[in-house]
Structure formats: structure tokens, C-alpha cells
Amino acid sequence: MAIGCEDGCIRIVSLEDDDFTLMRKFDRIKTRILSIAWGPPMRPHKSKTDGSDDEEEMWKDTWVVSGCSDSSIRKWDARSGRVMDRMTVDRTRNEKTLVWAVGVLADGTIVSGDSLGTVKFWDSSTCTQIQSFGTHGADVLCLAINPWSTGVFTSGIDQKIAEFIQVEVSTGKPSTLSTGKQKRWVQSCTRRLHSHDVRCLAIWPPQSMVSSSKSQQFTPNSMPPLLVSAGLDMSPAFSPCAPAGSEATKARNPFSRNSVSTFQDAYYHKSSFVSPVVSIAPLARLVACRYDNKVAIWRIKPVHSEDEMLGESAGNAEGWTKLLEMSLKVDTNIDDVALSGDG
């Protein structure tokens, strides 16, 4: 595991045998490291006389990319721990741009999101910019890549989640040097699923860095990929994000009866982390309600006739009695309240 730190140093940690062991440190730089991602693993070249079939030797991590606080993205050699190349993002006036998010596709393309609201795609071989999108009105804080590296999702302070997809465009007539087609990234849609800053994005199943050649196939009623977003509104959103196309119609939206499972049109589900404000003790007929700094308890009177039940539904105050209202001198708000079953 690679850890980027604010002291300008990347640390490599081993997680083998359920342990957390520091293995090595990269060269220190004079800036903060705000984001980090591994490049795709490479298969080392083996001689014909080498008969080793050890699976652990099949793939090796060769480079790491980091987003920094000095308007730059750095590519690191994972073996030597030194900077291989540097990419510079746009700046405004004399202020440095913060690269809050970086990611790497299976083909090695680097994706970045910065404090100017810009999403950029970079060629990792030449470390030059391929495309740039001024999609967001504020800082891009997070990004996620779909399992096939054919879709990228970004979000941040402006609460919008933007989807970028890879398409094939015509560049002219085919020739011996060119097929006449080229893959480009386009922004397909944006959706606002949150009422406050979005701080993190994740996709299940996760991105595969070694199997991008597999086609995006779905069986009937299969589960589409799910994009999970969360932020300061404390309500994670779960949205299907199947790639657009004929195959997407086979996937089943787990949150709706229809079969729409693309991010642009699918129905999404939101959960809440807010704990209940009411607790009930059924045997004692007690109800407790919490406020920011006080707790109140009521006793619900038994109902003996249908007329009394109708009276209570109309708001008859004689159906319950307040037993207690207690204000507490606490430094923070009360988060939860619970009554035992017998009161």
C-alpha cells in the first residue's frame, strides 16, 4: 500500500500476514501530497529457460502517480522511489492549484481533478495532457473509475457527479498508418444527488487493472455496477452506473422495477446515517424523544374502546401523559436515546 503524506513523502507499507509494516520511503519533496494512485501492473519479461510459474512473479507494480499542492502531478518509479516525470496543471494568478484527486486507467491513462474544478486526462508515457474538461464550478475532491476503465466519475464541492465515457470518433480516411478512428473522452451527463459537498466516490465491483480487454457483458437480471457517493449531508447515495449500450438493458436496477441501469437515467437510493430521535418501551407503553440537549418521556394510555382510538387519532391530548423533560448540560449534542423493553 502506498501512503502519500503532507510532509512530502510517500511511504510503502506491507499488509502481508495481517500486519502493517513500513517497507520503505520515497524521496521527499517540498510540497504536500494530496492524492495518490498506483499505475497498472506490468508483466516482467522472462527468458525461455526460466521455468518458474510463481503467480506472484507474474505482475509487478512499476510506478505511482501523486497529486500535489504545488499545481503539479508527479509520476514516481516504484522501485527507486524517485520522481520520473512531472505534469503541471493550470493556475490562477499567483495561487497554487491543489490536485485533490488522481486515478489511473487500465491502459495507463492518468486522470486528475483539481481545485479549479477541472478534470484532465494525461498520457502516462509522455506525461502530456490529452484532454481537459472544466466541468465543475468548484474543487474536484474525488473520482472513481468503472470496472472496465471505460467510465470515470468525478465530484466535489459543487455537489454534481459528472460521468465521462470513452467513445470512438472518426479522424479521416483509413490508411496504412492509421485506422481512421480514435478514442476520445466525452462528458456524458451530470447529476446532483447530494445537498452538500461530495467527499468520496467508490464503485462496486472495483476497477480491474489487468482485465480491461474483457467485454462489458451482462446476463439477464444481473447486477449492474453500483456507484456509491457520500459527503457532508451524511446520506450515502447508491446509483447503478452500467455503461450505455444494448448490454445495459439486461442488467437489473436493484432499487427500481424498471430495467434502466445507466447512471444518467437510473433511479438511485439514499441512506441516512442519522440515528432515530424516538425510542419505544412497548411493555411499559413509554416513548422517549431526544433533542439537541434534552430528553422527554411520555406514557401512552391504554385504549379501551373504538371511540377512544378515534379520539386519539384526532389529537386528543388525554391519550398520553408527559412524565419527564430533562435538560442536560453537555458540551455536544445528544446523538441517540434508547429505552429498555420494560421501561
Portion of residues within helices: under 10%
Tally of helical runs: 1
Strands, total number? 23
Walk across the major sheet and give the strand order. Answer: 4-5-6-7
Characterise this structure.
The chain has 343 residues and is mainly beta. The protein is 2% helix and 40% strand. The chain has one helix and 23 strands. The strands form six sheets. A four-stranded antiparallel β-sheet has the order 4-5-6-7, with no helix packed on it. A four-stranded antiparallel β-sheet has the order 8-9-10-11, with no helix packed on it. Strands 12-13-14-15 form a four-stranded antiparallel β-sheet, with no helix packed on it. A hairpin with a 6-residue loop joins strand 2 and strand 3. It is globular. The two termini are 50 Å apart. 27% of the residues are buried. The model has no long low-confidence stretch (mean pLDDT 85).
Topology:
Elements lengths: L1 E3 L5 E5 L6 E5 L7 E6 L24 E6 L3 E6 L5 E6 L10 E6 L5 E5 L4 E5 L4 E6 L6 E6 L5 E6 L3 E11 L10 E12 L5 E7 L21 E6 L5 E4 L28 E2 L7 E4 L4 E5 L3 E7 L5 H8 L6 E8 L16
Antiparallel strand pairs: 1-2, 2-3, 4-5, 5-6, 6-7, 8-9, 9-10, 10-11, 12-13, 13-14, 14-15, 16-17, 17-18, 18-19, 20-21, 21-22, 22-23
